[in-house]
Design brief:
By secondary structure, the protein is an alpha/beta fold. It has one domain (about 5-230): LmbE-like (Rossmann fold, 3-Layer(aba) Sandwich), CATH 3.40.50.10320. Helices cover about 45% and strands about 15% of the residues. It has 10 helices and 7 strands. Strand 4 (about 130-135), helix 6 (about 140-155) and strand 5 (about 160-165) form a beta-alpha-beta unit. The protein is globular and about 45 Å long. The relative contact order is 0.22.
């Protein structure tokens, strides 16, 4: 896709595939789904839930891990509580329902085995007919684990899409070829930016590699939007 055609599609001046509900976006952490698919979530035709698998336990008294400590938190529970509050606001901006599972990211003991996590995840997906899961570039160990879990267990009877993960793709990759841009208007792109800014505990660290939201916007503008590969 040429840059001009991509920019026109990103602005909503050319047709692109919208999400049809009910939809579930599977997010490893409390920001991945919105950073990666916020505009598509805002433009979806039908109900959308953002299911965060590693949303942590607000009651945990474990000392904060490295990332959470650098984000200004003292304990794992404090981080989970604050980040859930950010995610609630971000999902509200996009018209989505946040769903949080109490498992922990790579900084802490997971809090459950794959069988338990899979049972809780499939329950949280509910009646979603379309499920979007991390797909590229899978640079974070938690994303790699979750993508492998979905591949191994499968989601029969549902339409499954693997999405380009931000800000990883925009920061470190040229992007996958041949993936499908999802439809959204300029207004919905702006709603995504507003929602992404809700993650105020995370953006300072993400911005250490450069202005995260500007980089993501340029990346998606050149490709016609947020992209998925359908199974």
């Amino acid at each position: 896709m040429g840059r001009l055609a991509g920019a026109c599609r990103w602005l909503g001046l050319r047709s692109a595939e919208p999400l049809e509900g009910p939809v579930a976006v599977v997010s490893p952490h409390l920001d991945d789904g919105v950073l990666s698919l916020g505009a598509a979530i805002a433009s979806a035709r039908g109900d959308v839930r953002v299911v965060t698998v590693l949303a942590g336990d607000p009651e945990s008294g474990l000392p904060a891990g490295d990332w959470d400590e650098r984000s200004g938190f003292r304990t794992a529970g404090e981080a989970a509580d604050a980040r859930r509050a950010e995610d609630r606001l971000a999902c509200r901006d996009l018209g989505a329902e946040p769903v949080w599972l109490p498992f922990a990211d790579h900084q802490y003991p997971r809090g459950g085995g794959d069988d338990e996590i899979w049972e809780r995840l499939t329950e949280a997906l509910g009646g979603a007919e379309t499920v979007l899961v991390p797909g590229y570039p899978l640079m974070h160990e938690d994303h790699v684990w979750l993508a492998a879990l979905v591949r191994k267990r499968g989601l029969p009877g549902r339409r499954v899409g693997r999405y380009v993960e931000q800000p990883y793709a925009a920061a470190w990759t040229p992007g996958p070829d041949g993936w499908t841009p999802l439809g959204a208007s300029a207004r919905q792109r702006l709603a995504k930016l507003r929602a992404c800014r809700r993650y105020s505990s995370q953006l300072p660290l993400l911005n250490e590699q450069g202005a995260t939201l500007s980089r993501v916007t340029r990346y998606e503008g050149a490709r016609g939007g947020e992209c998925v590969s359908w199974d």
